[in-house]
Amino acid sequence: LRAVAFGSRSDVFATVADDGTLRVLDLSDYAVIARARGPCAATALAFAGDDKIVTGWEDGGLRIYSASSGDVLNQIAKCHRGRVTCIAVGMDFIFTGGEDGAMRVWSRRTMEFVGQYSEHTKPLTGLQVDNVHENLVHSCSLDRSVVTYDLKTTRRCNYRMHKDGGFTGLRQRIDSEQELLTTTTDGFVLGWDCDVQLPVLALETGKRMKLTCIDLSSSGRFAAVGCEDCAVRIWDVVSGDVVAVCRGHSGVINQAAWSPDEKQLVTVGDDKAICVWNFYLGS
User: In this predicted model, what pLDDT tens digit does every residue of 217-234 receive, in sequence order?
Assistant: First the structure.
């Protein structure tokens, strides 16, 4: 299983897999609501509203499916050279990152190509539309850089480097100073402020191991991170403490997704497992 995502509902999530299968599941009873099969391995997904799921594919294609029926609603046969590695959805645009190191922008209404940014030299591993400024989009890559683009000027407006490892995931806090949180191949969760070149936050497991993915809870307080030892660690970003270590996977954890109500976390991995974790933090 490659990727998992929620829309605005806490009881419905979707997954995509190497066998080309998209599944939409009901979290209350784990029933499959809708299913679709693509032509090759599926590599990324994101909800665009409650009934549209944007998916990326090994062949560089982008396909949009109905979350209720599994029908294909729209597609772009070749939006990247190589596989699509990550997707973000904004109010007016869909953003895709690719194995080719490019971020491309597509009209959400017409699916027409709008623009391309080629700041990275290796595959993109994360995309994030800014929480405050809709004209800003952030990306990270295995090339050890985090880049911010300004859609108004069509230029890069910020650039940060981590010399000791590449980036594997990216999210943005909704509290504090709206810092970006990234995971790295050398075992850190790093926080970045737009006005500071060096990290303003560094969380670590105490072990030298790759972190594979990250997702932030809806409050912005808790970060769920997939780790190379097949465990999911949950940090309280405010205190910097690990509040839970979740063990259930037997292979690499490829993606984690919090439910919007922050009560459950879903993770998927190379072991073909979907793990659902109930989250409750006692007083």
Answer: 999 999 999 999 999 999
Phi and psi at residue 55, in whole multiples of 5°?
Answer: -125, 145
Task: Please state, in angstroms and rounded to a whole number, the distance separating the CA atoms of residues 268 and 137.
Answer: 26
Which pTM was predicted? 0.96
Contact 173, 179 (CB under 8 A): yes
Across 120-150, b (16+ Cβ under 10 Å) vs e yields beebbbbbbbbeeeeebbbbbbbbbbbbbbe
Question: Is residue 1 over pLDDT 70?
Answer: yes
Q: Where are the beta strands (DSSP E) in 130-205?
A: 136-141, 145-150, 155-161, 167-172, 180-184, 188-192, 201-204
Q: Can you tell me the distance from the alpha carbon of 158 to that of 136, in angstroms, rounded to the nearest whole number?
A: 10
Element housing 258 (H / E): strand 253-258
The pLDDT tens digits of the residues spanning 2-47 come to 999 999 999 999 999 999 999 999 999 999 999 999 999 999 999 9
Q: Are 96 and 56 in contact (CB under 8 A)?
A: yes
> Nearest-5° angle of CA 12, CA 14, CA 20?
155
